[in-house]
Amino acid sequence: MYIGHYNPAWPRDKVADARVQEIGGNVKQFRVGDIHRMALEVPIDDHFMGGIINKYFGEVSDPIYWALWTNKVKK
Predict the structure, then answer these.
(1) Torsion of CA 33, 34, 35, 37, to 10 degrees
(2) How would DSSP label each residue in 2-66?
C-alpha cells in the first residue's frame, strides 16, 4: 500500500494550511516501526493537485492513497 502525506516532515496537527486544509492527526514524527491509524482517500490525484514525489513511478501499478489524518496507535 502506498500513501501520500502532505508535508510529511511536519507534525500532523500543524500541517494544514491555506492550500490543503482538511488534514491532520496526532503524529509528531513518522518513525520506522510505529503503527498508525489513518483516514485515506483514493486515488491521490482526485484529492491533491500539487507536486507528488513518487520513488516507485513506473515500477508498480498499485493505487496511491491520500492521507486525510494520521494518528499514532499506542502500543
Answers:
(1) -140
(2) EEE-SSTTS-TTT---SSS-S-EES-SS--TT--EEEEEES-GGGT--S----TTTTT----EEE
The whole-model pTM stands at 0.83
C-alpha cell at 30: 513518522
Phi first, then psi, for residue 68 (nearest 5°) are -80, -45
Report pLDDT digits (tens) over 2-34: 999 999 999 999 999 999 999 999 999 999 999
**Sequence ranges of the domains in the chain:** 1-75
